[in-house]
Write a structure and sequence with these properties.
The complex is a heterodimer.
Chain A: H1 3-13, E1 15-22, E2 36-41, H2 50-57, E3 69-72, E4 75-76, H3 83-90, E5 98-103, H4 118-137, H5 141-144, H6 148-159, H7 163-173, E6 209-212, E7 214-221, E8 240-244, E9 247-250, H8 259-266, E10 292-298, E11 301-302, H9 309-316, E12 323-330
Parallel strand pairs in A: 1-5, 7-12
Antiparallel strand pairs in A: 1-2, 3-4, 3-5, 6-9, 7-8, 10-11, 10-12
Helix pairs in contact in A: 6-7
Chain B: H1 15-32, E1 40-43, E2 55-67, E3 99-111, E4 116-125, H2 133-139, H3 142-150, E5 156-160, E6 167-171, H4 176-187, H5 199-210
Antiparallel strand pairs in B: 1-2, 2-3, 3-4, 4-6, 5-6
The chains are: A alpha+beta, B alpha+beta.
Chain lengths: ~325, ~220
């Protein structure tokens, strides 16, 4: 099996053990039902787990219509973020099983966009895929040109965690190729798709700029810590900065664009020990301690920043072609 | 100012270009729309990441007096001063029982993925309760409601605001760069690139109409 395919297999098989508790205000039976234990695929979404969870609680619910949502330590969970990303971001120290609370009533529509189960998850997936296609190819024609039934099949393969089915459908998607020094021959896109876009090659054969779809989630804590278990619990989503911004890089001969380079382009204020020409000293002569990146997690792995970025993208991206990066930083001290 | 590289010839715009265009838009709006509230440039200073370029344009607390019976009159689109009121001048105790004050906030945010601006908006009643899309559609000019229903490229979706962790409505960007390109080609006689200062003005002259905000012609010069 090619290296690329092996990594994808690990990504697709990744799962988080969840322990789901019914919110105590909704327990209408005595005794209260025990929590449900569910293995959630990392690349999946919480609404897709509801059919597995609901049977555990349906006899305990008060009468009324369901509007389902989840929270972690009181923080409502954004259902359109892949489950693995939520876990990597919200649990500084991995909590296994991950204890979540499910609600069937009282949807917080002032903070969460509405969710109608699988349909919403599918709509979100296809939209993200279109956006990723736009970033990689410069347009989303490849997604629009896919037949309705192929789109359905692609979504179903993701829902079911069926990597074989997904891999079979990929050539129909004709997503542009992302150049990878290490697995040039083993990329998942078919050779035909290279003409469509991806890393552009101009007349002279020089590689131009590549645009990579990235979703960055940055959690900032104010104080340094020795161990992850010392990181305070999260209170609200306002502690997290979300950046939906492509990483652009120019492939230069002999130079390798690393994950560190990508992080510096996204978070220049946290450039670590590489000095910036401006901003080191305030106008009044006082010094500002630079913030520090403590942790970069992708698919649950804490990556070394020296790894070539193209390898990271090709091997660790989600099925909608987005690379989700969770970062924990110490904010700059002022 | 050399706008080369900021407005791309396919109708898209860079982040730097958006910043320039946004300030120019806000300035022109202030100058030519004296009776209307002005747009403010909101930097994201409360966020953990201070990126000076990461800002958006904000126009808030625009009041639409909505008759519960029907949609806003089309004539009110013509002169913007007609259907908005400064908040202080609305005396809620004498408001007609059929009228309800609806408040609207509009944000123009740059999309790094699509390289075009996007309009986010939300409506709420005087007690702060968000308005549903059905209610909002009744506040929109009837012409834009049919535009929304018939058009494939202009539609409204409910999505999370990119920075505020709240659900807002977004006007879909699909096709933006194509009609900006058309606007650019048709307005220049010598085939010159649209100056970056006019990018948002042109963009808003089309997009604003969908939500009933008119762009004074003087701004397009």
């Amino acid at each position: 099996m090619a290296a690329n395919e092996e990594a994808m297999k690990y990504v697709w098989e990744g799962a988080i053990p969840l322990q789901i508790h019914l919110h105590k205000s909704e327990v209408a039976s005595h005794p209260a039902p025990p929590p449900a234990l569910v293995l959630a695929p990392r690349i999946g979404y919480l609404p897709l787990l509801v059919p597995l969870i609901k049977p555990y609680f349906k006899d305990s619910l008060p009468p009324g219509e369901d509007s389902i949502w989840f929270d972690y330590k009181g923080v409502p969970l954004k259902w359109y973020i892949p489950t693995g990303v939520l876990f990597d971001l919200l649990c500084a120290e991995s909590e296994r099983p991950w204890n979540l609370t499910i609600h069937f009533r009282g949807y917080p529509s002032n903070v969460l966009i509405p969710c109608e189960g699988e349909d919403s998850a599918k709509w979100n997936f296809v939209n993200s895929l279109k956006e990723a296609a736009y970033i990689i190819n410069g347009n989303c024609k490849n997604v629009m040109n896919m037949s309705q039934s192929d789109q359905e099949d692609l979504w179903t393969s993701v829902m079911n965690g069926d990597l074989d089915a997904y891999t079979r459908l990929l050539p129909k998607l004709k997503m542009g190729n992302i150049e990878d020094e290490f697995s040039r021959k083993e990329s998942l896109s078919s050779p035909v798709s290279r003409q469509g876009g991806g890393t552009e090659i101009d007349v002279a054969g020089q590689v131009k700029t590549a645009r990579i779809p990235v979703r960055l989630y940055v959690r900032s804590v104010s104080q340094n810590f020795e161990n992850l278990e010392d990181v305070p619990e999260i209170d609200t989503w306002d502690e997290i900065s979300y950046m939906n911004r492509p990483v652009e890089f120019l492939k230069e001969k002999g130079k390798c664009f690393t994950l560190r380079d990508a992080m510096e382009s996204l978070l220049p204020e946290y450039s670590g020990d590489r000095a910036q020409t401006s901003g080191e000293e305030e106008a009044d002569g006082s010094q500002e301690t630079r913030g520090e990146i403590k942790l970069v997690r992708i698919q649950g792995i804490e990556l070394k920043l020296e790894i070539p970025f193209s390898w990271v993208v090709n091997n660790l991206m989600n099925p909608e072609f987005y690379l989700h990066i969770s970062v924990l930083v110490i904010g700059p001290q002022r | 100012m050399d706008s080369a590289g900021e407005v791309l010839n396919d109708g898209k715009i860079t982040l730097e270009g958006f910043t320039v265009a946004a300030r120019a838009f806000a300035d022109k709006w202030k100058r030519h729309n004296l009776s209307f509230p002005s747009w403010s440039w909101v930097p994201l200073i409360n966020r953990t990441l201070l990126k000076k370029e990461e800002c958006y344009l904000s126009l808030e607390k625009i009041i639409i007096l909505s008759s519960l019976e029907g949609s806003a009159e089309e004539e009110s689109l013509g002169v913007t001063a007609d259907w908005w009121e400064k908040e202080e001048s609305i005396d809620h105790t004498v408001l007609n029982v059929e009228d309800e004050a609806h408040y609207y906030d509009y944000h123009i945010v740059y999309s790094a993925s699509y390289m075009v601006p996007m309009l986010y908006f939300r409506g709420y009643s005087s007690d702060g309760k968000p308005l549903s899309l059905d209610v909002i559609k009744r506040d929109l000019p009837s012409s834009s409601v049919s535009l929304l229903l018939e058009s494939k490229w202009t539609f409204i979706t409910q999505e999370e605001h990119p920075y505020l962790n709240r659900p807002w409505f977004k006007l879909h960007p699909c096709g933006t760069e194509e009609w900006i390109k058309l606007l650019s080609e048709s307005s220049s006689s010598d085939g010159c690139q649209m100056p970056v200062e006019l990018y948002l003005v042109s963009w808003f002259s089309v997009v604003g109409q969908v939500v009933g905000l008119r762009t004074p012609l003087e701004m397009l010069i």
